[in-house]
Amino acid sequence: MKISYSPYTLIPLAPLNAVSTGTSRQGALLKIEEGEGLIGYADLHPWVELGDVSLPEQLECLQAGRSTELIEQSISLAHRDAQLRCQKKSIYDEGEPVRNNFLISDLNLLQPALLSEIKHQGFATVKLKVGRDLVRESEALRVLVSADLKIRLDFNATVRADTVTAFLKSLPEEVLHKIEYIEDPCVFEEQAWRSLQSFAKIAVDNQYDQVPWEKLKSPPFDVIVIKPAKMNVDKAMARCLKWNLHAAVTSYMDHPVGVMHALGVAMELKKRHGSLMLDSGCWTHHLYQENIFSQHMSLQGPFILKVQGTGVGFDELLGALPWHQIKMS
Ligand code: MG
């Protein structure tokens, strides 16, 4: 198998979450070539802030034949893409349409006019990245509650358990009622998470690897957030089925190629598991300045429309990129 990469930069329009600073983000697209014309693409977009090793180190690992969670997933998704491309199929042939949540990373955007527009477009859930300014976030939630939308909160485990508890206690009952789930409320700790379940459903995302899966009698959360960019999807789904949990697939706030891969997985899981799957969180490329890839993407309400081409799409753009082959040592 031949592996090549093509580096890119994404420029956020505003800080993306409680751990990011809003500076430009580096990633690389990967191309794998196997046998007779079998070519597949995927994204490799490390979040050092969330514990991934940096892009140069990821590329070094690739070269040395070592793997990381991101490399493993990226290559597995590139294989999937190659199979689809070879059969002239798109990810849209493999699954059912999935609705996405509306992600708000900048509270300044949270105005009543925007909320009624979101609702009008057909979105059912809004996701807020919280944990940076709890006073303002609490005010924002009071604005949000007037709209008939479910709310997802994501603390990215940046706040202490007692602070999250005090925050949730301070929220009016009607706000708590609208919360679909709270993602990574604090660093994973079984008792703390279990007691937070009395306020709302809890979802595990970036704390997934902190969960002692083998020892758990029953998980202190209700939803697994599946990120195909760094998580073995079959294993995560097996855990959902074992514990009767729901799942939501999200992008890794990465390149449009990564976004379309996450969407492809979400659509396939929706077809296989139906109502176990909650709305996805794949519509994230609008958080960055437009690039030639995102220009080829469009939304119809909460649905991401098909990108022209096979596999995850973008055939011509991917074909025209400069690729650097990795010389395996
Ligand atoms: Mg998250």
Bulk shape: globular
Nearest-integer average pLDDT = 94
Would you identify the regions where 5 or more consecutive residues have pLDDT less than 50?
none
Distance between the termini: 13 Å
> What structural class do the secondary elements suggest?
alpha/beta
If you compute it from the alpha carbons, what radius of gyration comes out, rounded to the nearest whole angstrom? 20 Å
The largest sheet is: 7 strands, parallel
Spatial arrangement of strands, main beta sheet: 4-5-6-7-8-9-10
In short:
With 329 residues, the protein is α/β, with parallel strands linked by helices. 33% of the residues lie in helices and 19% in strands.
What does this protein structure show overall?
The protein is 33% helix and 19% strand. The two termini are 13 Å apart. With 329 residues, the protein is an alpha/beta fold. Residues 154, 156, 183-184, 205-206, 225 line the site of magnesium ion (MG). Residues 154, 156, 183-184, 205-206, 225 line the site of magnesium ion.
